[in-house]
Amino acid sequence: MGTSRLERCGWQSFRPELFLCEPGRRIRNVGPQILSIVREFSGGKAVLELCCGAGRICLELARAGFNVTGIDLDDRMLAFARQAAATESQSIRTRLSFDQADVCTFDLGRQFDFIIFEDDGFVYLLDQEDQLACLQQVVTHLTDCGRFLLIFNTPQRELDDDHEREFTYDPLTQIKTCACTWAATGPDGERVAVREGFERRRMTYRYELDLLLKGTGLEVLSRWGDLNCAPFTDPRRQEYHYLCRRV
């Protein structure tokens, strides 16, 4: 079931190196802003990141003294995370763990003070059943005073701003399918475009998201449009940044 989820959304159709080496990905550094939010709103030191990928945010939090667990279904991404963690000091490594797990079915046997699901991981859950299953697991793994930070792109930005990639959109399933073209470096150092793989992403609209959260027992405390905690007012220019707690 878990592997087929990676296949369905396209994550096994391209090499993770292409994703991680994209110019925008290499310079993307939201760790300090997320660290600031975790420091302000977490009531403890135990943090969980869903779809942690190569572990950049987990490392940022562990360096700041948090005890961090990262889970991801793609063992190739976890290999990058573990490789990065291996270069850290022993004291930081003891605060880090990475586990292969499905965000819809994971059971870690403990609760966390703060859970993070960012960088569009939520859009790869391609139907409401998977979305609800994931959010229910979040509720199960949150402490009574815990907080959940959910970040992903709005449908308006997804559909209006993606001019560089070919895509189709099915309004009945709310799924966007696009071919992937990656910016890579050629053997002589030149920039080349590599066409490899595809992605499927589900568009979730504001009031649908509100109902999904409420239906799984999550209360929205704040709706921000960015990591600077600006109000969410323009879905064409902003992303979802929801801070929640369990009811």
Spatial gap, N to C terminus:
30 Å
Give the total of domains. 1
Biggest beta sheet attributes: 7 strands, mixed
Report the total helices.
10
Mean pLDDT over the full residue set: 94
The CATH C-level name is Alpha Beta
What is the N-to-C order of secondary-structure elements (H for helix, E for strand)?
HHHHEHEHHEEHEHEEEHEE
The name of the CATH topology is: Rossmann fold
Percent of residues in helical segments? Answer: 25-40%
Q: Which CATH architecture?
A: 3-Layer(aba) Sandwich
Shape field? globular
Unreliable segments of 5+ consecutive residues? none
By DSSP, the count of extended strands is 10
Rg computed from alpha carbons, rounded to a whole number of angstroms: 18 Å
CATH superfamily: Vaccinia Virus protein VP39
Question: Structural class, judged by helices and strands?
Answer: alpha/beta
Strand neighbour order, sheet with most strands: 3-2-1-4-5-10-9
Beta-strand content bin: 25-35%
Summarize the structure in short:
The protein has 247 residues and is α/β, with parallel strands linked by helices. The chain is 34% helix and 31% strand. The strands form 2 sheets. It has a 7-stranded mixed beta sheet, sandwiched between helices. Strands 6-7-8 form a 3-stranded antiparallel beta sheet, with no helix packed on it.
How would you explain this protein's 3D organization?
- The chain is of the alpha/beta class and 247 residues long.
- It has a single domain (2-152, 205-246), classed as Vaccinia Virus protein VP39 (Rossmann fold), CATH 3.40.50.150.
- 34% of the residues lie in helices and 31% in strands.
- The chain is built from ten helices and ten strands.
- It has helices at residues 2-9, 16-20, 23-27, 31-41, 56-63, 75-85, 90-93, 128-141, 155-161, 206-215; strands spanning 46-50, 67-72, 96-100, 112-117, 142-153, 167-170, 175-185, 191-202, 218-224, 239-246.
- The strands form two sheets. A seven-stranded mixed sheet has the order 3-2-1-4-5-10-9, with helices on both faces. Strands 6-7-8 form a three-stranded antiparallel sheet, with no helix packed on it.
- Helix 4 crosses helix 5.
- It is globular and about 50 Å long.
- The two termini are 30 Å apart.
- The mean pLDDT is 94.
